[in-house]
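This part of the workshop introduces the protein records we will be handling. An example says more than a description, so a record of this kind follows:
>
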Amino acid sequence: MKCLYCFLITLLLFSCKDNNPIEQDAALVVSSTEITLNPNKPYAEITITKGAGNYKVTSSDAAVAQYVLTGNKLYITGYNIGNATVTLTDRDKNQVKIKVTIDQFIARNVPVSTIVFIKTGDSKNITNTDSKPLYSLIDTASVIQVGGTANNLQITGKNKGVCMLYYLDEYWPVLIYNIQVVDHYPFVVSSSAGPLQLPAGSESECGIVSGCGNYTLTISNTNVISAELLSWPIEPTLSQSNPRVVHIKALQSGSSELIITNVETSEVKTVIVSVR
């Protein structure tokens, strides 16, 4: 009986091995190769249990299934009804194909997009108060370096170019940061489009919305107006760089040009001020 028992255990072990050849022999193994998504299950978590690392992922139809790869976890999100194949490839070119079926429409919010300008060598911070914020970076040209924490990302410009940073909610992009690494920040002045009309004795302001941070003011007629640079009164946005406020005093009737120069690039913006 003891010999028969040992024989049966041995037979069972060999039978298990024969019925599960992928787990034993495949070079790349994931926890599931077929998933179905719907409004009650808008995404699936796939664990990479075996592989050579340096993973890359593609979707046969991004309108049906998209993905986020974090370490050895692959998250597949659904959108439109249909079928798609998500392919995972490792460093050694081993592949696993995951069949994705969407049997019901999954309502998604259209992500909001914002532009972030960063000069090469400079850094900007993206803050988030969520308990565990999740981002996904697409930076094929390595234009930025990311540091800091998930709640306070520090983005440093490395090379001139463009990349995309996605903020994810349930592994779906809800906010897109269009990051543009530039040689010089765009020079934008709020009141350069038209003349500024002021009564004598009044005061007004125009904003240097973005620029290098080093500006000079030139006034064509100092009898008509005076001007000085002040700090920006509120927290600037990610698309604004080195903003300032130009405070203008109307002294007496007449006309004058207020010339604002962005020293780094020698760009000039002219504000025509008419005092009555």
Summary: Residues 89 and 95 are 4 Å apart (CA to CA). The domain at 28-102 is CATH 2.60.40.1080 (Immunoglobulin-like). The radius of gyration is 30 Å.
